[in-house]
């Protein structure tokens, strides 16, 4: 007599648990893709705008050296490319690194806004940093399960 006939309820519970885990993994994957697309859109636009606006204008408005603004813009565009969801499937470690980098940038951006008494901007930094942290955590979890 096999275990399924002896313990039908246990077999049913095992199938349900497996099905639930698969559904949860798919939901997490969809949420990560959605978060990544949002981050890609925000940082690609932010970086490209910084590159499109004349450097001296931004340097004066942001009270930062022009070279630093170009560096930030290039970092934002590079992170947007690295966070593109299709690339996550090719090399998830790059996606995790990009998300951790953006999380760090958002902490620094919040400190910058705080130093300039631009407190209204900090919730944006917290939200984007939180999304980046979620992506880093989720993709690392997926990588560990693979």
UniProtKB/TrEMBL annotation:
It is a multi-pass membrane protein. It is found in: Membrane. The keyword Transmembrane applies. Keywords: Membrane, Transmembrane, Transmembrane helix. This is Putative integral membrane protein. It comes from Labilithrix luteola. The chain crosses the membrane at residues 34-53, 65-83, 95-114, 120-138. The keyword Oxidoreductase does not apply. Pfam families: DoxX_2. InterPro entries: DoxX. GO terms for cellular component: membrane.
């Amino acid at each position: 007599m096999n275990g399924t006939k002896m313990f039908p309820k246990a077999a049913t519970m095992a199938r349900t648990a497996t099905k639930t885990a698969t559904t949860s993994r798919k939901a997490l994957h969809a949420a990560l893709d959605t978060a990544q697309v949002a981050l890609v859109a925000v940082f690609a636009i932010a970086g490209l705008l910084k590159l499109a606006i004349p450097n001296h204008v931004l340097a004066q408005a942001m009270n930062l050296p022009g070279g630093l603004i170009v560096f930030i813009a290039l970092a934002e565009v590079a992170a947007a490319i690295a966070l593109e969801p299709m690339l996550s499937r090719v090399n998830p470690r790059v996606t995790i690194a990009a998300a951790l980098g953006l999380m760090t940038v958002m902490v620094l951006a919040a400190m910058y806004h705080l130093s300039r008494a631009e407190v209204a901007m900090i919730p944006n930094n917290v939200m984007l940093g939180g999304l980046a942290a979620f992506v880093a955590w989720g993709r690392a979890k997926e990588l560990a399960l693979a």
